[in-house]
Amino acid sequence: MPEIIARTATADYPIFIQQGALDHLGERVAASCQGRRTVIVTDDQVGPLYLERVSASLKAAGFNCGEAIVPAGEGSKNPERLAFLYARFHETGLSRTDPVIALGGGVVGDLAGFAAATWLRGVPLVQVPTTLLAQVDSSVGGKTAIDLPQGKNLVGAFYQPRLVVMDPAVLHTLSRRFMADGMAEVIKYGLIGDEALLDQIEQQAYDLEWVVARCVRSKIAVVARDEKDSGERMLLNFGHTVGHAIEKATGYAAFSHGEAVAVGMVMAAAIGEKLGETDPGTGDRIRRVLEAYQLPVHADVPLQALLPAIFSDKKRLGSRIHYVLLRRPGEAFLKPMTPNELSAVLGEVWPRG
Description:
Elements: E1 3-7, E2 12-17, H1 25-32, E3 37-43, H2 47-60, E4 64-70, H3 79-92, E5 100-104, H4 106-118, E6 125-129, H5 132-138, E7 143-148, E8 151-158, E9 163-166, H6 176-193, H7 195-203, H8 208-225, H9 240-249, H10 257-274, H11 282-292, H12 303-311, E10 316-317, E11 320-328, E12 331-337, H13 339-349
Parallel strand pairs: 2-9, 3-4, 3-5, 5-6, 6-9
Antiparallel strand pairs: 1-2, 7-8, 10-11, 11-12
Helix pairs in contact: 1-2, 3-4, 5-6, 5-8, 6-7, 6-10, 9-10, 9-12, 10-11, 10-13
C-alpha cells in the first residue's frame, strides 16, 4: 500500500493511497489507535454509498461503531451540527483513546475534525476523504473548522489526524461538477508552485492517482515548514480570499468551494497584472485551463457584497491582508495590502454587471 508520511511540529502520521483502501480501513485504524469505540461521521449523500462498508471493516477489526449523519453541504458546518456530534460522542461513550472517523468530503472533514479536536480536549481523528477536493487538499494538514454568520472557517483548530486513508476508486462515483470542484484545487497547486503539474493538467494527460499523490506531497512539504499558517502555508490559499467571500455572499448555494476558488484565482491574476506583479498573460492562461474543466471564471456578485468577508479573511495580520498573488504560473508570493489598497484594486478589476 503506497504510504506517505506527513511530518509536522506537533505530529507525524501516515497517508495511505490505494485502490480498495476502504476495505482495509479497520486494520489501519486498529494499528494506530488504542481505543475500540468509534463514531463514523458522514453525510446523507456519502453514507448510503460507503457507511456500511466502512462500518463492516471497522467491526471486523474489533471496533464498536457509532454513527453520526449530517446533511450534505456547507450548511452543516455550524455550531448546531457540532453540538449534535458531541451528543453522539457522549452517547457512544467515546474516550480519549477512541477515534473519530471522518468519512466524506471537505465539509465532513472540517466538522468532524473540529469535533475531534475539542471533544475531551482531543481524541484521535482519522480522515477518510471521498471527494477529489478532500483527497488533494482538505483532509491533509490539520485544518479543522466550522462557519459563523460572519464568515467561513472562523472557528477552528489546527489538529493533525492520526492517519489519512484515501481510496481513489471512490472518485468514480463523483458527478462531473464535484470532479471539477476538486480540479480547481489541483490547478491551484500547479499555479502556486508546480508548473510541471499544471502542464499535465492543461494537456489532460495524467493519472488521477498520480495527481492525488503529487498534490498531497506538495501540501505536506509546505505544512512541514509552516504548520500554523503564519507564512508559506498561506500560499495554499491562492484564490481563497475572494473565493470564500463569494461562497458567503451567495449563501453557500450558488457556487461550490472549487468553483468559487476558480473565480478567486482569476481575480488574483487580474490584481497581480494590474499591480505589475504578475507576468502579463497569466490571467488568460488561468481562464483557459479553468474553462477546459468547466469551471467558472467570473461571478455575478456585486463587489460591495464581498468586501465584508474579504476584510475578515484569516490571512489578515494586523492592519494588512496578506493577499496571495503570482509572479508567474508556478511561483506564488504574499502581497501585504491595507483594506483601502485592496478595495481600490478590486474596484478596478472586478467585472461590472
